[in-house]
Amino acid sequence: MAKLFLFVLFLFIQNPCKLHYLQHNEKFPPISEADEQGLLAIGGDMSIPRLIYAYNHGIFPWYDASQPLLWWSPDPRMVLFPDKLKVSKSMKQLFRKETFTVTFNKDFRAVIESCAEIRRDGQHGTWITQEIIDCFGDLHELNIAHSVEVWQDDNLVGGLYGIYLEDKKIFCGESMFTRASNASKYGFISLVRKLKEDGVKLIDCQVYTQHLESLGAEEISRNEFLSYLDVSA
């Protein structure tokens, strides 16, 4: 409790006019009230209705076990338009050789748990808490959270998961992992190609990374991103 108090106090000192601390079942504030880093609100709950509402309105949870529940809507927003996917020559060779086998929604739990376990440069611990694993597992049962599995010799060597807003033709990528060189990239490219066939308009990548940019992702304004969701700030 003391750690939570100190964290909230720090945020309040940094942004005294923009801090929104949600009570259970309380609605999100207007997205335009997110701070410069994209932090919109703190607290609330991880109920299925809240998560569904959040993703349909350009909001996503991102926090670690030492923090309270944090909700974000950054500006700009990193997205990938399927037509702009970049596939390098080396990746094209891997596809020609059929280096990996890709499946969809075959083992969601294994994918999200692997994403939580993988250690990443500059990251201490994981934001994929047990609460996240359980809640997204429930969303998978509702056919809202989807996974991509990448296999090599019957071993799961890579994958990713995210939220599929099928009615809005938007896929919200959450996390990926790899245990073999280029496995997660192979799965991501396979997913984008499949989503393009399904008429998906864009893949939400949330925030900038050089890796995503190399695959063709780009930053757009939050307002433009929200327009694809048919909502406003």
Q: What can you see in these coordinates?
A:
- Functions in the N-end rule pathway of protein degradation where it conjugates Leu, Phe and, less efficiently, Met from aminoacyl-tRNAs to the N-termini of proteins containing an N-terminal arginine or lysine.
- Belongs to the L/F-transferase family.
- Keywords: Acyltransferase, Cytoplasm, Transferase.
- It holds the Pfam family Leu_Phe_trans.
- Its EC number is 2.3.2.6.
- The chain contains 8 helices and 11 strands.
- Mean pLDDT is 90; it is low at 1-10.
- It is an alpha+beta fold and 233 residues long.
- The two termini are 33 Å apart.
- It is globular.
- A 7-stranded mixed beta sheet has the order 6-7-8-9-10-5-11, with helices on both faces. It has a 4-stranded mixed beta sheet with strand order 1-2-4-3, covered by helices on one side.
- The chain has helices spanning 2-14, 48-56, 89-96, 108-117, 130-141, 183-197, 210-214, 222-228, and strands at 21-22, 39-43, 60-61, 70-72, 77-80, 101-104, 145-152, 155-165, 170-178, 202-206, 218-220.
- It folds into 2 domains: 2-75, Alpha-Beta Plaits; 78-228, Leucyl/phenylalanyl-tRNA-protein transferase, C-terminal domain (Aminopeptidase, 3-Layer(aba) Sandwich), CATH 3.40.630.
- It is 34% helix and 24% strand.
Outline type: globular
Percent of residues in beta strands: 15-25%
Proportion of residues in helical segments: 25-40%
CATH architecture grouping of the largest domain: 3-Layer(aba) Sandwich
Keywords:
single chain; 233 residues; alpha+beta; Alpha-Beta Plaits; Aminopeptidase; four-stranded mixed β-sheet; globular; disordered N terminus
